[in-house]
From TrEMBL:
InterPro entries: Aminoglycoside_PTrfase, Kinase-like_dom_sf, Pseudomonas-type_ThrB. This is Aminoglycoside phosphotransferase domain-containing protein. GO terms for molecular function: homoserine kinase activity. One of its GO terms (biological process) is threonine biosynthetic process. It comes from Rubritalea profundi.
């Protein structure tokens, strides 16, 4: 949290005071919400995002909103600035304001196959919109997927936690995936972090927010992130068992159905999906070492980490990607 004087300095240009706000979280960004739930304030430091990258993100969200995608639009300052940029005591702050999503948080534990089909449809519509945006001829200043902090700075910072084979496997997968054909149907602006933490639900409609990680990449990467974070990790009973793929398909099948109906892609390359999925596992493996005191965790957690390490090093996995993506059976 920020001290009250600093917080007021940063939010006053949006017509808000500290008395209007409640603290939500502090991770990469510091996030507050108006007590009346009309707006959300995000406070970033330039070490994570530049002014140009922030403007690109907000331009993309505004474009999605104009195409009737259910996103939380940016709210400018009172004098019409897209966001606030200022330096205070040597720290460069970038402050953005967004409309608050209507409804209530979409809770993963309450999500059934109907919700997952809607999630797939929303993702597909965003990728379809990314295809139309590509025709405008105005590229935005966002990183390419392989330039992500998650695949670069985080891995360098915690290189002592990974083996040379782990590192080489990641580089091999990134190289192979980047050789894929880039067409408007398969490549463009992606959300970068599609999971239930970033959804609200209002009268059955899903609203998505937090485009801070949006980037240029293959659409399959968005799908792999959702498959890993919101399905696989939730149905895994600590370790893979005989029923794992059936439990995954029960939710992945509807999501994929909703996606393929609404996206520019009409089929999924499961071999590439597998690579993106394993890359996600590598990111989560490093994330655990970055955020947890791994040495103090129990034997079960360490066995799970060992499975993750071997999956990445050998580029194999317990998930049968062809079977779970077969919508005919």
């Amino acid at each position: 949290m920020l001290n009250i004087e600093l917080l007021n300095t940063l939010v006053r240009p949006f017509g808000i005071s500290d008395a209007d706000l409640e603290f939500i979280q502090h991770s990469q960004n510091i996030v507050y919400r108006q007590l009346n739930r009309k707006r959300v304030i995000r406070i970033s430091k330039e070490r994570y995002r530049t002014e140009s990258q922030t403007k690109a993100e907000l331009d993309w969200v505004n474009y999605l909103a104009k195409q009737n995608i259910s996103v939380c639009r940016p709210v400018p300052t009172e004098n019409g600035q897209t966001f606030l940029s200022c330096v205070i005591e040597g720290v460069h702050y970038i402050v953005s304001s967004f409309e608050h999503a209507p409804g209530l948080p979409a809770l993963r534990q309450d999500a059934d196959e109907v919700v997952f089909e809607k999630l797939g449809a929303l993702n597909g519509k965003m990728h379809q919109t990314a295809k139309s945006f590509a025709t405008t001829g105005h590229p935005l200043d966002r990183l390419m997927c392989h330039e992500s902090r998650l695949l670069n700075e985080d891995f360098l910072e915690f290189k002592q936690s990974i083996t040379p084979k782990f590192r080489d496997s990641i580089l091999d997968m990134i190289s192979e995936l980047n050789e894929g054909r880039r067409t408007p149907e398969s490549f463009g602006l992606t959300h970068g972090d599609i999971n239930f933490v970033n959804f609200y639900q209002d009268n059955g409609e899903l609203w998505i927010y937090d485009f801070d990680n949006c980037e240029y990449g293959y659409h399959l990467q968005d799908l792999a992130t959702t498959l890993y974070d919101s399905i696989y990790c939730k149905v895994l009973n600590k370790f893979a068992d005989e029923g794992l793929n059936s439990r995954i398909k029960f939710l992945w099948g509807p999501l994929l159905k909703g996606y393929l109906i609404n996206s520019p892609s009409k089929a999924v390359d499961t071999s590439r999906l597998k690579k993106f999925f394993i890359l996600r596992e590598a990111i989560i493996y490093v994330h655990y070492h970055r955020t947890l005191n791994v040495e103090e965790l129990g034997d079960s957690f360490h066995r799970g980490l060992e499975v993750m390490r071997l999956n990445v090093e050998n580029q194999t996995h317990q998930v049968d990607f062809a079977a779970i993506s077969n919508l005919k059976n």
